[in-house]
Amino acid sequence: MKRRALAVILCAVMACTLAACGSKSTTSNNTAENTTGNNTVKAVVLEDDYVSIGQYSGLTYTSSYTPMTDDAYQEAVTKLLTDNGTKEEVKDRDTTKTGDDIVFDFTGKIDGKAFDNGSATDYEAVIGETGFIDGFDDNLVGHKVGETYDFNITFPDNYGDENLNGKEATFTITIKKINQTVPAELTDDFCKTYTDYDTVDDFNANYRTDLDKANAADAENTDKDTLWNQVMDSVTVKKYDDESVASYNADITSYYQSMAGYYGYANNTMSNFYTDYMGMTEEEFAQQCKEYAQNLATEDKVVALIAKKEGLELTDADLTDGYNKFASNYNMAQNEVDNYFGDQDSFKTELLYEKVVSFVYDHATAVAATETSNSTNSTNSVSTTVNNTAN
Question: Which of 164, 182, 200 is the last residue of a domain?
Answer without folding.
Answer: 182
